[in-house]
Amino acid sequence: MVSQITRGIKISVLTSFEGTYFKNYKIHFAFSYEITIENHSKDSVQLTSRHWEIFDSLNDDEIVDGEGVIGKKPVLKPGEQHTYSSGCLLASPYGAMKGYFNMINFTTTKTFKVFVPTFRLSAPFALN
């Protein structure tokens, strides 16, 4: 598990290899990740959008931007947390992801970025 705190918001990521799949006549490696967002600040915040940079050792890097996370824009009061799961397919058994969440602080009405630390996506058989 990797974790990082930005402006009192802690992001923790746990990853798992889910197996191999064939898609468009090519093998793909499936990974899941669980992200926990914890509000350690004194203000209520809301996650509004996400930005991902996906690195695949056999493919070009991919950038993904979107609203919320898995269709939600969670509001976190001080001391609250939100956990969600998602996943991605890679062309190789080894890659990584990093990114950030755009958030708004309800007290100051200012937006800010909360960084997601780089987390590795690796099939167990790919490491020695």
Automatic annotation (TrEMBL):
Record InterPro entries: ApaG_domain, ApaG_sf
Pfam families, per database record: DUF525
Endpoints of the signal sequence: none
SUPFAM superfamilies: ApaG-like
Domain of life: Bacteria
Residues in ApaG domain copies: 3-128
One record GO biological process: error-free translesion synthesis
Annotated protein name in UniProt: Co2+/Mg2+ efflux protein ApaG
UniProt organism field: Flavobacterium muglaense
